[in-house]
Amino acid sequence: MSNYENIIVTGGCGFIGSNFVHYVVREHPGVHVTVLDKLTYAGNPKNIAGLPADRVELVVGDVCDAELLDELVPGHDAVVHYAAESHNDNSITDPEPFVRTNVYGTFRLLEACRRYDVRYHHVSTDEVYGDLALDDPARFTEETPYRPSSPYSSSKAASDMLVRAWARTYGLRATISNCSNNYGPYQHVEKFIPRQVTNILCGVRPRLYGDGLNVRDWIHTEDHSRAVWTILTRGRIGETYLVGADGERSNIDVLRAILRVMGKAKDDFDWVRDRPGHDRRYAIDPTKLRRELGWEPVHTDFESGLEQTIQWYADHEPWWRPVKAATEAKYAAQGQ
Ligand code: NAD
Ligand code: TDX
User: Ligand 1 in contact with 82 (CB < 6 A)?
Assistant: First the structure.
């Protein structure tokens, strides 16, 4: 049993938030989850369909809605804040919803948690630290200065700063986690791995940005969910924890692994226009989370996790097919 019996999960119909909802329902039977989700293009109620109605309630609404938060937040033990505009490429074409949801939405939640003295956990990204050179032996730690590059990562960095200020100034019981790139089932087809897998399933060639040498530090979303629960229940108030699973890989290596698993030739893809301001490399040093809270990733074999993820997309075409054409039309307009 934890001290948390009645929690709000914002963005619980998205990729990572829905994984956390499933995780809590499966692993922590005494906990009731209220999902607050606006159901944007990225939110899908099917991601949490079938969970017991006495454990999970979906409230469709906006984290920017102060009146709704005044109704919803009192009486809950904690808010775990996943809701965000999450895609870098979208933030480059239209930054406004990123500032609104990620910055103003976080502000509204912090105000509600302050008013009703509710524990708050903030889910953030390693992208707030900017990028590293490919040959730099360094990895990001909790002490690395913030240096975000994109409208998305700067909006997340701004939201992290608000959380720190609310913790220090008002004594809000808050923690922050900054995680690396997640993979797994239910990830929107706009993101790198699902985009390439579903392209191949549609008979379309995958698309690689720039020179393909950019490095991302991959973690299975199940490991991320367990890390967030660990920090929510046992993390020190006011602290930041980096979450990563030693999963550094170049984009071209990941793409070649996908091509291999799906029976395609290793050069069966197209090079496309690079992302403006494209971060070169992310890498997380997760020592603090491991030493202080004893968290360890379970999904340490990236290749087998990737194979399972590919199989999930092959088995769940009705889940991704309805949004595939619109997603690709957006990319086509950007030359990607
Ligand atoms: P996602 O885009 O798949 O899901 C976002 C969810 O938030 C959707 O369900 C959407 O409907 C909801 N939402 C958006 N705006 C809202 C609003 N104004 N009010 C209420 N709900 C709203 O995103 P994701 O990949 O699951 O990411 C979840 C969180 O994790 C984000 O905060 C993101 O910054 C963070 N994160 C993601 C990754 C990654 O690899 N995807 C890595 C580290 C951190
Ligand atoms: O078609 C593509 N081709 C390609 O080469 C796409 C969609 C992406 N890429 C590259 C860009 C990145 O180097 O692949 C890499 C991964 O791209 P994304 O899936 O868009 O992820 P990224 O920009 O790294 O950000 C992700 O991880 C950190 C999440 O989307 C963020 O929400 C999270 O904070």
Answer: yes
**105 within ligand 1 shell (Cβ under 6 A):** yes
Cα-based torsion angle of the residue sequence 18, 19, 21, 26 in order, rounded to the nearest 10 degrees: 150
Q: Which ligand is nearest to the CA of 183?
A: 1
Query: Domains along the chain?
Result: 6-188+219-248+278-301 (3.40.50.720)
| Options 4, 152, 183, 282, the catalytic residue | 152
Per DSSP, the three-state class of 93 is helix
Rounding to the nearest 10 degrees, give the CA dihedral for residues 39, 44, 47, 51: 60
**DSSP string for 160-173:** HHHHHHHHHHH---
Distance (angstroms) between ligand 2 centre and the Cα of 32 equals 33
Q: Directed axis angle between helix 317-333 and helix 302-315, to 10°?
A: 100
| Cα gap 133→30, rounded to integer Å | 45
Measured in Å, how far apart are the chain's first and last C-alpha atoms? 48
- Encode pLDDT of 102-149 as tens digits: 999 999 999 999 999 999 999 999 999 999 999 999 999 999 999 999
Put simply, whether the predicted model's pTM sits higher than 0.90 gets the answer yes
